[in-house]
Amino acid sequence: MDNGSRRQFSTSIHIMALDGIVNVNSLFTFAVFLGLAWYPITDPAITLTGVAEPACVADTTMGEDLVAFHVYSFSSFLFSSLVAFALKQAIWIGQGGGKVRSVPMTIHVNTAALRAGILVSAAGSVFGCVFLMLALVDLVQIKLGTLACRSFHSLAAIVPLVILVPFALVVFVATIFSFRCLCFIIFVLSVFSSISFVIWSQYTGFFDFQNQVTLQNQNQFINILSFPSAWNHLSFPTGPPPKFLKIALFVKKWPHKHRAGGLERHALTLHLALAQRGHELHIFTTSSLNPSFPSFPIGTLYFHLSKPTAAGYLDQAVVWKQFQHQNSTGKPFDVIHTESVGLMHTRSRNLTNLAVTWHGIAYESIHSDIIQELLRTPEEPLAFSLTERAMKVVEEVKFFPHYAHHVATSDHVGEVLKRIYMIPEERVHIILNGVDEEIFKPNAAKGKDFKKKFGIPQSKTLVLGIAGRLVKDKGHPLMFEALMQMLKENDTFRETAIILVAGDGPWSDRYKDLGATVLVLGTLEPAQLASFYNAIDIFVNPTLRAQGLDHTLLEAMLSGKPLMATRLASITGSVIVGTEMGYTFSPTVASLKGTLYRVWHDGRVVLERKGQLARQRGLELFTATKMAAAYERLFLCISNDEENRDSYCTYQPSFQ
Ligand SMILES: *[C@@H]1O[C@H](CO)[C@@H](O)[C@H](O)[C@H]1NC(C)=O
Ligand SMILES: *[C@@H]1O[C@H](CO)[C@@H](O)[C@H](O)[C@H]1NC(C)=O
Ligand SMILES: *[C@@H]1O[C@H](CO)[C@@H](O)[C@H](O)[C@H]1NC(C)=O
């Protein structure tokens, strides 16, 4: 071969190679572009394998990664194509302006530059493929369950992918240095591209919508009444309700200002949210001595007051009469909700459209009794006989079945109701408490102002926060003892830490005795309380009362603060489920002290990180919106609406 024909031969190979790159890349660029436009919904509840356990559901970062990788892949392919196209153009021009010649031409192209250009273009393709592979891995995990939970389908899809693609890329890179094999490379690339395109279209369901729909039909329909975990994990539609319900609520006391207990706050948050969504709420409650009964600017909220009995309960005969009157005039009630025993079991019998929310059951209280008994000093009288409490449990086990549907406010209580109280599973539903996410949210400026207002010096590197009623069974004697010992024994702790105590009660004066390191703030209004959470580094709740789900913990979480609380089953089972969002301790002075020292050692940076995770979990589970949506669905499902019962009681995320 003489020099001219050799050059001509290699030029035609170059053109073939470039043609190949341009063709393959165009296909890829188009495919990836479509993939972006058709970006699959990453709603955690929508996996092809149905509602998976939370560990198997991909989080939002995976969805974000998917989009990012898609975009990188798109850019790489586009880059590669454009470079290849430019080179081709250069050769074309070098060959004589694109005119077809019958006589072979000697052309003058800088071969080194050409080779470099092809290398750059090839590198673009390699990166494009790698990013596409990563995007596919994310996509598979979102659709079929994460690798972390060893989903068989995910593994079956990902293993061939991560073997074939790198293999093909190695072949590609190895051969790119020998130009004679370029034709072969192009062949390999096209095979690979078709395979990936097929895989890609399979998982995005780009070509077979039909297939995807049947898959969902098979797997995604679940009977919501038998859903075993907290409903807060499900995503309900956020649009207007499919139907406006007439709801009766029985609650012993409607909250007054900020001195409400957990049950009343739950009643307020939930039912205001439901009324705001357009449901007609009739609230049967006791008239309060306070003449300024709160008024609400919501047209669908009606109050029916009655005088409490001597024991402070709702007068059952009176409220039942009021209820019957409301039921017979106008529309009958769709659903009845009672907060704890607001409506007693003697009246709730035979009502199928009724749900009761438990904010503390006797079985849980036994744990509190044991703790209190262990902490009791010899001089103190016995608070509650444990045998008496056990009999209370037996009593509850007997009358609880007279309520049709039970809502447990924590995973632990749900388990106890099913196992120990022997209530059928399809009548026990777990809906965790929620708090107003508009009030409780991170706001550094508010926190700073709060610190300034109360004169908290910069030298304090750890601000501990305590809130709630300052009474014995909220663990304040324990907290007081632990703090007193620590302030006495360790000067550094005293100089660098400060404890803010929000709330009122018998222990507020004792805390004041501890000196300047403990700042007692008194009762705070909700707005002030929100600032309080923003001013602290960690929220400490030493409660000994194993009842319901404490609202203060949820408020602190939504404010982005880590938690430290007593190791009670409802708390460790639903709120502080791991060390990544806080600390738990046994209700003893030694354990409390040890944990406080650990928090102090960990310091602000660690606490901030835990706080962010706490907020993430809070937003996922503990918002008032989430809670109201879950109750709304429960009420729709158990209301006497035979016609739509199936659709209300079925969970099918993709068609909502
Ligand atoms: C309420 O009224 C409806 C319709 O009249 C009736 O079927 C239902 O039994 C009533 N509910 C109660 C608890 O009385
Ligand atoms: C509930 O139904 C049972 C039988 O089904 C009946 O004996 C009982 O009297 C009813 N109770 C009420 C309060 O209506
Ligand atoms: C306080 O505690 C820290 C950590 O436990 C320790 O390093 C320090 O020496 C203690 N200071 C005093 C005065 O005990």
Protein architecture, described:
- By secondary structure, the protein is of the alpha/beta class.
- The chain folds into 3 domains: 3-204, no CATH class; 231-434, 3-Layer(aba) Sandwich (Rossmann fold), CATH 3.40.50; 444-622, Glycogen Phosphorylase B (Rossmann fold, 3-Layer(aba) Sandwich).
- The chain has helices at residues 3-37, 60-94, 111-144, 152-176, 182-204, 209-219, 262-276, 316-328, 345-348, 362-375, 386-399, 411-419, 444-453, 476-489, 491-496, 507-512, 526-535, 551-558, 569-575, 589-621, 624-638, 645-648, and strands spanning 222-223, 246-250, 280-286, 301-306, 335-339, 354-358, 405-408, 428-430, 462-467, 497-502, 518-522, 538-541, 563-566, 582-585, 650-651.
- Helix 3 packs parallel to helix 5, helix 10 packs antiparallel against helix 11 and helix 18 crosses helix 20.
- The radius of gyration is 33 Å and the shape is globular.
- Residues 489-493, 597 line the site of one 2-acetamido-2-deoxy-beta-D-glucopyranose.
Query: Assembly type of the shown chains?
Result: single chain
| Name of the CATH homologous superfamily of the largest domain | Glycogen Phosphorylase B
> Average pLDDT across residues?
83
Count of β-strands: 15
| Strand order, largest beta sheet | 4-3-2-5-6-7-8
**Unique bound compounds:** 2-acetamido-2-deoxy-beta-D-glucopyranose
Q: Please, how many domains?
A: 3
Sheet with most strands: 7 strands, parallel
CATH class label of the largest domain: Alpha Beta
Taken from the alpha-carbon principal axes, the silhouette is globular
CATH architecture assignment of the largest domain? 3-Layer(aba) Sandwich
What is the C-alpha radius of gyration, as a whole number of Å?
A: 33 Å
The residue ranges in which pLDDT falls below 50 over 5 or more consecutive positions are 41-52, 100-104, 205-218
User: How many individual helices?
Assistant: 22
% residues in beta strands: 5-15%
The CATH topology label of the largest domain is Rossmann fold
